[in-house]
Amino acid sequence: MRRAILACCLLILSAQSAWTQTYSGDTDAVTNQRDGQNPCDVTGNLPVGVYTLVVSSSSFEPCHQAQALGQGSPGENCDSTYQPPSTWSIAGHGHLTFGPPSSGATATAVEVQYWYGETIASCTGGTVVTCNGGGLGEDSTFPVGASNVSVPFDWGSGGSINPNDPTFPVPYYLFAKPIGGSVQCTANNIATEENNSGNASTATPTGTPMPSATPTPALDVTNYMTHQGGGQEPCSTSGNLPPNTFSQLSADNAGQPCAAGWNNALCDSNSPWNYTVHGHVTLAPPTSGTTASSIEVKTYIGGNQIACTLGSSVTCSGSYTLVEDSTYAVSATMSESIPFDMGEFLLAPHDSGGGSNYQAYFVFGKPIGGSVRCLSNLYTTTEHN
Which of helix, strand or coil describes residue 199? Predict the structure, then answer.
Protein backbone atom coordinates (compact mmCIF):
# COMPACT_ATOMS: atom_id res chain seq x y z
CA MET A 1 0.00 0.00 0.00
CA ARG A 2 2.96 3.75 3.60
CA ARG A 3 4.76 4.20 6.59
CA ALA A 4 7.63 2.87 4.57
CA ILE A 5 6.45 0.60 1.75
CA LEU A 6 7.42 -2.93 2.46
CA ALA A 7 10.62 -4.09 0.73
CA CYS A 8 10.11 -7.05 -1.57
CA CYS A 9 12.58 -9.89 -1.83
CA LEU A 10 12.66 -12.79 -4.24
CA LEU A 11 12.68 -16.53 -4.70
CA ILE A 12 16.17 -17.64 -5.74
CA LEU A 13 18.34 -20.71 -5.99
CA SER A 14 21.60 -19.85 -4.27
CA ALA A 15 24.92 -21.61 -4.52
CA GLN A 16 26.37 -23.11 -1.37
CA SER A 17 29.45 -25.22 -2.09
CA ALA A 18 28.23 -28.14 -4.20
CA TRP A 19 24.69 -28.13 -2.86
CA THR A 20 21.66 -26.00 -3.58
CA GLN A 21 19.28 -24.40 -1.13
CA THR A 22 15.86 -22.96 -1.91
CA TYR A 23 15.07 -19.68 -0.18
CA SER A 24 11.67 -18.08 0.06
CA GLY A 25 11.68 -14.41 0.96
CA ASP A 26 8.91 -11.98 0.01
CA THR A 27 7.66 -14.27 -2.69
CA ASP A 28 4.75 -12.27 -4.07
CA ALA A 29 3.51 -8.71 -4.12
CA VAL A 30 0.33 -7.05 -5.30
CA THR A 31 0.68 -3.31 -5.78
CA ASN A 32 -2.00 -0.64 -6.20
CA GLN A 33 -5.02 -2.69 -5.37
CA ARG A 34 -6.84 0.62 -5.84
CA ASP A 35 -4.95 3.33 -7.68
CA GLY A 36 -5.98 6.96 -7.82
CA GLN A 37 -9.45 8.32 -7.34
CA ASN A 38 -12.38 6.10 -6.38
CA PRO A 39 -15.91 7.01 -5.26
CA CYS A 40 -16.60 7.59 -1.60
CA ASP A 41 -18.77 4.91 -0.02
CA VAL A 42 -21.51 7.49 0.62
CA THR A 43 -22.83 10.42 -1.44
CA GLY A 44 -24.63 13.57 -0.41
CA ASN A 45 -24.47 15.59 2.80
CA LEU A 46 -23.19 13.74 5.87
CA PRO A 47 -25.44 14.06 8.94
CA VAL A 48 -24.20 16.39 11.68
CA GLY A 49 -22.73 14.79 14.80
CA VAL A 50 -23.00 11.25 13.44
CA TYR A 51 -20.26 8.90 12.27
CA THR A 52 -20.90 7.83 8.65
CA LEU A 53 -18.91 5.15 6.80
CA VAL A 54 -17.13 6.96 3.96
CA VAL A 55 -14.50 4.40 2.83
CA SER A 56 -14.18 0.65 3.29
CA SER A 57 -12.12 -1.97 1.49
CA SER A 58 -9.69 -4.80 2.19
CA SER A 59 -6.34 -6.09 1.11
CA PHE A 60 -6.09 -8.96 -1.34
CA GLU A 61 -4.43 -12.26 -0.49
CA PRO A 62 -1.30 -11.65 -2.54
CA CYS A 63 -0.40 -15.01 -4.03
CA HIS A 64 -3.87 -15.79 -5.32
CA GLN A 65 -4.31 -12.20 -6.48
CA ALA A 66 -1.00 -12.33 -8.35
CA GLN A 67 -2.25 -15.36 -10.23
CA ALA A 68 -5.59 -13.66 -10.90
CA LEU A 69 -3.63 -10.81 -12.49
CA GLY A 70 -1.92 -13.24 -14.84
CA GLN A 71 1.42 -13.56 -13.04
CA GLY A 72 3.22 -16.83 -12.62
CA SER A 73 4.39 -19.66 -14.84
CA PRO A 74 2.02 -22.18 -16.48
CA GLY A 75 0.98 -24.81 -13.98
CA GLU A 76 2.47 -22.94 -11.03
CA ASN A 77 0.41 -22.54 -7.89
CA CYS A 78 0.88 -20.58 -4.70
CA ASP A 79 2.11 -23.61 -2.76
CA SER A 80 5.01 -24.06 -5.15
CA THR A 81 6.60 -20.66 -4.59
CA TYR A 82 7.50 -20.82 -0.91
CA GLN A 83 7.81 -23.11 2.05
CA PRO A 84 4.75 -22.75 4.30
CA PRO A 85 4.00 -21.46 6.80
CA SER A 86 4.54 -17.90 5.65
CA THR A 87 2.81 -14.62 6.40
CA TRP A 88 1.90 -11.50 4.51
CA SER A 89 1.54 -7.82 5.29
CA ILE A 90 -0.34 -4.83 3.96
CA ALA A 91 0.77 -1.21 3.78
CA GLY A 92 -1.39 1.58 2.46
CA HIS A 93 -1.71 5.30 1.92
CA GLY A 94 -4.55 7.48 0.86
CA HIS A 95 -6.52 10.61 1.48
CA LEU A 96 -10.18 11.64 1.61
CA THR A 97 -11.34 14.99 0.28
CA PHE A 98 -14.28 16.73 1.95
CA GLY A 99 -16.16 19.70 0.54
CA PRO A 100 -19.03 21.95 1.68
CA PRO A 101 -22.55 20.47 1.72
CA SER A 102 -24.94 21.06 -1.17
CA SER A 103 -27.22 22.93 1.26
CA GLY A 104 -27.25 24.05 4.88
CA ALA A 105 -24.41 25.11 7.17
CA THR A 106 -20.84 23.95 6.50
CA ALA A 107 -19.20 22.06 9.35
CA THR A 108 -16.47 23.78 11.32
CA ALA A 109 -14.54 20.50 11.60
CA VAL A 110 -14.74 16.81 10.70
CA GLU A 111 -13.62 13.96 12.93
CA VAL A 112 -12.29 10.89 11.10
CA GLN A 113 -11.80 7.47 12.69
CA TYR A 114 -9.88 4.68 10.94
CA TRP A 115 -10.48 1.04 11.97
CA TYR A 116 -8.82 -2.15 10.71
CA GLY A 117 -8.16 -5.76 11.60
CA GLU A 118 -8.06 -9.27 10.19
CA THR A 119 -10.81 -10.49 12.53
CA ILE A 120 -13.34 -7.70 11.98
CA ALA A 121 -16.89 -9.08 11.89
CA SER A 122 -18.70 -5.79 11.25
CA CYS A 123 -18.33 -2.04 11.69
CA THR A 124 -21.23 0.37 12.15
CA GLY A 125 -21.44 4.10 12.70
CA GLY A 126 -23.80 6.35 14.62
CA THR A 127 -23.13 8.48 17.69
CA VAL A 128 -20.14 6.16 18.26
CA VAL A 129 -18.37 3.62 16.04
CA THR A 130 -18.74 -0.06 16.86
CA CYS A 131 -16.21 -2.29 15.14
CA ASN A 132 -16.34 -5.88 16.37
CA GLY A 133 -12.89 -7.44 16.22
CA GLY A 134 -11.18 -4.32 14.90
CA GLY A 135 -8.61 -1.90 16.23
CA LEU A 136 -8.77 1.91 16.16
CA GLY A 137 -5.86 3.04 13.99
CA GLU A 138 -6.45 6.79 14.21
CA ASP A 139 -8.95 9.31 15.55
CA SER A 140 -8.24 12.88 14.38
CA THR A 141 -10.22 16.07 13.89
CA PHE A 142 -9.55 18.42 10.98
CA PRO A 143 -10.80 22.00 10.42
CA VAL A 144 -13.21 22.58 7.52
CA GLY A 145 -13.59 25.74 5.44
CA ALA A 146 -15.43 26.96 2.38
CA SER A 147 -13.14 24.98 0.08
CA ASN A 148 -12.06 21.35 0.12
CA VAL A 149 -9.95 19.80 2.85
CA SER A 150 -7.99 16.56 2.35
CA VAL A 151 -7.53 14.14 5.24
CA PRO A 152 -4.63 11.65 4.88
CA PHE A 153 -4.69 8.11 6.23
CA ASP A 154 -1.87 5.56 6.44
CA TRP A 155 -1.98 2.03 7.72
CA GLY A 156 -0.06 -1.19 7.93
CA SER A 157 -0.65 -4.55 9.54
CA GLY A 158 0.21 -8.20 9.46
CA GLY A 159 -2.13 -10.47 7.60
CA SER A 160 -2.98 -14.12 7.37
CA ILE A 161 -0.74 -16.77 8.86
CA ASN A 162 -1.87 -18.91 5.95
CA PRO A 163 -1.45 -16.82 2.79
CA ASN A 164 -2.61 -19.70 0.57
CA ASP A 165 -6.11 -19.28 1.98
CA PRO A 166 -7.93 -16.45 0.14
CA THR A 167 -10.44 -16.06 2.99
CA PHE A 168 -8.07 -13.94 5.08
CA PRO A 169 -8.23 -10.35 3.83
CA VAL A 170 -7.48 -7.42 6.15
CA PRO A 171 -10.47 -5.05 5.98
CA TYR A 172 -10.37 -1.38 6.94
CA TYR A 173 -13.10 1.21 7.52
CA LEU A 174 -13.06 5.01 7.74
CA PHE A 175 -15.87 6.93 9.45
CA ALA A 176 -16.41 10.70 9.33
CA LYS A 177 -18.41 12.86 11.78
CA PRO A 178 -19.09 16.50 10.76
CA ILE A 179 -19.14 18.96 13.68
CA GLY A 180 -21.27 22.13 13.71
CA GLY A 181 -22.66 21.54 10.23
CA SER A 182 -22.30 19.15 7.30
CA VAL A 183 -19.78 18.16 4.62
CA GLN A 184 -19.71 15.91 1.57
CA CYS A 185 -17.07 13.28 0.82
CA THR A 186 -15.95 14.26 -2.69
CA ALA A 187 -12.87 12.11 -3.41
CA ASN A 188 -11.20 8.92 -2.17
CA ASN A 189 -7.61 8.28 -3.25
CA ILE A 190 -6.01 4.99 -2.18
CA ALA A 191 -2.98 2.90 -3.07
CA THR A 192 -1.98 -0.31 -1.29
CA GLU A 193 0.70 -2.96 -1.44
CA GLU A 194 0.58 -6.53 -0.12
CA ASN A 195 3.60 -8.79 0.23
CA ASN A 196 4.08 -12.44 1.14
CA SER A 197 7.05 -13.39 3.25
CA GLY A 198 8.37 -16.92 3.48
CA ASN A 199 11.01 -19.02 5.18
CA ALA A 200 14.26 -20.61 4.14
CA SER A 201 13.89 -24.32 3.57
CA THR A 202 16.49 -26.83 4.66
CA ALA A 203 19.39 -27.51 2.31
CA THR A 204 18.68 -30.37 -0.06
CA PRO A 205 21.76 -32.21 -1.39
CA THR A 206 21.48 -32.65 -5.13
CA GLY A 207 24.99 -33.67 -6.03
CA THR A 208 25.07 -30.96 -8.72
CA PRO A 209 27.23 -27.86 -8.18
CA MET A 210 25.50 -24.50 -8.77
CA PRO A 211 28.23 -22.02 -9.75
CA SER A 212 25.97 -18.95 -9.69
CA ALA A 213 22.56 -17.76 -8.62
CA THR A 214 19.74 -18.47 -11.05
CA PRO A 215 16.65 -16.23 -11.29
CA THR A 216 13.26 -17.88 -10.99
CA PRO A 217 10.81 -15.01 -11.54
CA ALA A 218 7.40 -16.74 -11.71
CA LEU A 219 5.21 -14.98 -9.14
CA ASP A 220 8.21 -13.43 -7.46
CA VAL A 221 9.32 -9.84 -7.03
CA THR A 222 12.67 -9.87 -8.79
CA ASN A 223 13.78 -6.30 -8.17
CA TYR A 224 12.59 -3.15 -6.50
CA MET A 225 13.47 0.45 -5.74
CA THR A 226 12.07 2.23 -2.71
CA HIS A 227 12.02 5.90 -1.78
CA GLN A 228 13.42 7.30 -4.96
CA GLY A 229 12.45 10.76 -3.68
CA GLY A 230 13.04 9.89 -0.06
CA GLY A 231 11.93 13.09 1.65
CA GLN A 232 12.12 16.82 1.10
CA GLU A 233 12.99 18.05 -2.38
CA PRO A 234 12.86 21.59 -3.81
CA CYS A 235 9.56 22.64 -5.35
CA SER A 236 9.59 22.57 -9.14
CA THR A 237 8.70 26.29 -9.11
CA SER A 238 10.26 28.71 -6.62
CA GLY A 239 9.06 32.17 -5.60
CA ASN A 240 5.50 33.44 -5.74
CA LEU A 241 3.25 31.44 -8.08
CA PRO A 242 1.42 33.59 -10.65
CA PRO A 243 -2.31 34.04 -9.93
CA ASN A 244 -4.86 32.13 -12.01
CA THR A 245 -2.11 30.19 -13.81
CA PHE A 246 -1.01 26.58 -13.34
CA SER A 247 2.61 26.07 -12.26
CA GLN A 248 4.46 22.79 -11.78
CA LEU A 249 4.95 21.96 -8.08
CA SER A 250 6.32 18.40 -8.11
CA ALA A 251 7.37 15.79 -10.69
CA ASP A 252 9.67 12.82 -11.14
CA ASN A 253 10.30 9.78 -13.34
CA ALA A 254 10.20 6.21 -12.11
CA GLY A 255 13.51 4.44 -11.87
CA GLN A 256 14.19 1.30 -13.87
CA PRO A 257 14.02 -1.65 -11.46
CA CYS A 258 16.21 -3.91 -13.58
CA ALA A 259 18.76 -1.19 -14.35
CA ALA A 260 18.91 0.68 -11.05
CA GLY A 261 17.35 -1.57 -8.42
CA TRP A 262 18.84 -3.59 -5.60
CA ASN A 263 19.01 -7.06 -7.16
CA ASN A 264 20.07 -6.39 -10.73
CA ALA A 265 21.77 -9.74 -11.29
CA LEU A 266 18.52 -11.57 -10.63
CA CYS A 267 16.05 -9.11 -12.16
CA ASP A 268 13.64 -10.44 -14.74
CA SER A 269 13.49 -7.63 -17.31
CA ASN A 270 10.55 -9.29 -19.07
CA SER A 271 8.23 -9.12 -16.05
CA PRO A 272 5.56 -6.43 -15.64
CA TRP A 273 6.24 -3.77 -13.03
CA ASN A 274 4.46 -1.40 -10.65
CA TYR A 275 4.94 2.28 -9.81
CA THR A 276 3.49 4.09 -6.80
CA VAL A 277 3.85 7.69 -5.61
CA HIS A 278 2.97 9.28 -2.25
CA GLY A 279 3.73 12.80 -1.14
CA HIS A 280 2.58 16.28 -0.31
CA VAL A 281 3.46 19.85 -1.20
CA THR A 282 3.45 22.58 1.44
CA LEU A 283 2.23 26.05 0.48
CA ALA A 284 2.56 29.40 2.27
CA PRO A 285 1.47 33.02 1.72
CA PRO A 286 3.48 34.93 -0.91
CA THR A 287 6.42 37.14 0.02
CA SER A 288 4.46 40.13 -1.31
CA GLY A 289 1.09 40.93 -2.80
CA THR A 290 -2.31 39.35 -2.16
CA THR A 291 -2.62 35.85 -0.75
CA ALA A 292 -4.75 33.54 -2.87
CA SER A 293 -8.11 32.54 -1.46
CA SER A 294 -7.69 28.99 -2.76
CA ILE A 295 -5.55 26.84 -5.03
CA GLU A 296 -6.59 24.24 -7.61
CA VAL A 297 -4.26 21.23 -7.70
CA LYS A 298 -4.12 18.65 -10.49
CA THR A 299 -2.08 15.42 -10.33
CA TYR A 300 -1.19 13.29 -13.35
CA ILE A 301 0.56 9.97 -13.87
CA GLY A 302 1.60 8.56 -17.23
CA GLY A 303 4.17 7.24 -19.66
CA ASN A 304 7.49 8.79 -20.54
CA GLN A 305 5.94 10.56 -23.55
CA ILE A 306 3.57 12.67 -21.42
CA ALA A 307 3.86 16.39 -22.21
CA CYS A 308 1.80 19.15 -20.57
CA THR A 309 1.23 22.80 -21.49
CA LEU A 310 0.38 25.16 -18.64
CA GLY A 311 -1.76 28.30 -18.44
CA SER A 312 -5.24 28.97 -17.11
CA SER A 313 -5.79 25.24 -17.74
CA VAL A 314 -3.56 22.15 -18.15
CA THR A 315 -3.40 20.43 -21.53
CA CYS A 316 -1.51 17.11 -21.69
CA SER A 317 -0.71 14.72 -24.52
CA GLY A 318 0.66 11.19 -24.60
CA SER A 319 -0.29 8.34 -22.27
CA TYR A 320 -1.55 9.75 -18.97
CA THR A 321 -4.30 9.71 -16.35
CA LEU A 322 -5.66 12.71 -14.46
CA VAL A 323 -5.60 11.24 -10.95
CA GLU A 324 -7.15 14.14 -9.04
CA ASP A 325 -8.39 17.69 -9.55
CA SER A 326 -9.31 19.40 -6.27
CA THR A 327 -9.46 22.98 -4.96
CA TYR A 328 -8.22 23.77 -1.45
CA ALA A 329 -8.66 26.80 0.82
CA VAL A 330 -5.51 28.86 1.49
CA SER A 331 -4.70 30.67 4.75
CA ALA A 332 -3.32 34.21 4.79
CA THR A 333 -1.19 33.44 7.83
CA MET A 334 -0.31 29.74 7.90
CA SER A 335 1.31 27.15 5.63
CA GLU A 336 -0.79 24.20 4.47
CA SER A 337 0.08 20.79 3.08
CA ILE A 338 -1.76 19.16 0.18
CA PRO A 339 -1.36 15.37 -0.27
CA PHE A 340 -1.09 13.41 -3.50
CA ASP A 341 -1.31 9.62 -3.95
CA MET A 342 -1.21 7.80 -7.27
CA GLY A 343 -0.08 4.57 -8.85
CA GLU A 344 0.03 2.37 -11.92
CA PHE A 345 0.32 -1.40 -11.95
CA LEU A 346 1.17 -4.26 -14.32
CA LEU A 347 2.99 -1.91 -16.69
CA ALA A 348 4.80 -3.20 -19.76
CA PRO A 349 8.14 -4.87 -19.00
CA HIS A 350 11.24 -2.76 -18.54
CA ASP A 351 14.05 -2.84 -21.05
CA SER A 352 17.04 -3.55 -18.83
CA GLY A 353 19.39 -2.41 -21.57
CA GLY A 354 17.75 0.78 -22.79
CA GLY A 355 15.23 1.77 -20.16
CA SER A 356 12.53 2.66 -22.67
CA ASN A 357 9.49 2.41 -20.39
CA TYR A 358 9.86 5.19 -17.86
CA GLN A 359 6.78 6.41 -16.04
CA ALA A 360 6.33 9.91 -14.65
CA TYR A 361 4.09 11.90 -12.33
CA PHE A 362 3.30 15.63 -12.26
CA VAL A 363 1.58 17.91 -9.74
CA PHE A 364 0.35 21.35 -10.91
CA GLY A 365 -1.17 24.18 -8.86
CA LYS A 366 -3.17 27.29 -9.81
CA PRO A 367 -3.61 30.00 -7.12
CA ILE A 368 -7.00 31.71 -7.35
CA GLY A 369 -7.50 35.38 -6.47
CA GLY A 370 -3.88 35.95 -5.48
CA SER A 371 -0.61 34.10 -5.04
CA VAL A 372 1.09 31.49 -2.85
CA ARG A 373 4.59 30.09 -2.46
CA CYS A 374 5.53 26.41 -2.68
CA LEU A 375 7.74 25.83 0.37
CA SER A 376 8.55 22.13 0.15
CA ASN A 377 7.91 19.02 -1.91
CA LEU A 378 8.08 15.70 -0.05
CA TYR A 379 7.46 12.42 -1.84
CA THR A 380 8.47 8.79 -2.07
CA THR A 381 8.13 6.40 -4.96
CA THR A 382 8.39 2.63 -5.20
CA GLU A 383 8.99 0.64 -8.37
CA HIS A 384 9.28 -3.12 -8.61
CA ASN A 385 9.17 -5.90 -11.18
Answer: strand
Fold for the domain defined by 223-385? Jelly Rolls (2.60.120)
Classify the phi-psi angles of 87: left when phi > 0, otherwise alpha if psi is within -120 to 50, otherwise beta: beta
- The side-by-side arrangement of strands in the sheet containing 12-16 is 19-23, 12-16, 214-215
pLDDT over 80 at 147, yes or no: yes
Whether the Cβ atoms of residue 121 and residue 174 lie closer than 8 Å to each other = no
CB 343 within 8 A of CB 277: yes
- List Cα–Cα distances, 150 to 50, 121, 189, 261, 347, in angstroms: 19, 29, 10, 33, 29
Every domain of the chain and the residues it spans: 1-221, 223-385
Residue 145 is predicted with a pLDDT of 80
> What does the pLDDT look like over 260-301, one tens digit per residue?
666 666 677 777 777 888 888 989 999 999 999 999 999 999
Taking alpha carbons only, the member of 94, 381, 148, 98 closest to residue 250 is 381
- C-alpha 162/C-alpha 276 separation (Å) is 27
Residue 267 makes CB contacts below 8 A (sequence gap 6+) with 215, 222, 223, 257, 258, 261, 352, 385
Instruction: Please check the confidence at residue 182 and state whether its pLDDT lies above 90.
Output: yes
pLDDT tens for each residue of 190-222:
877 666 554 433 333 333 333 333 434 345 566
Query: Given pLDDT bands bounded at 50, 70 and 90, which one contains residue 302?
Result: confident
- Residue pair 355/238 in contact by the 8 Å Cβ criterion: no
What predicted TM-score, i.e. pTM, was given to this entire model?
0.69
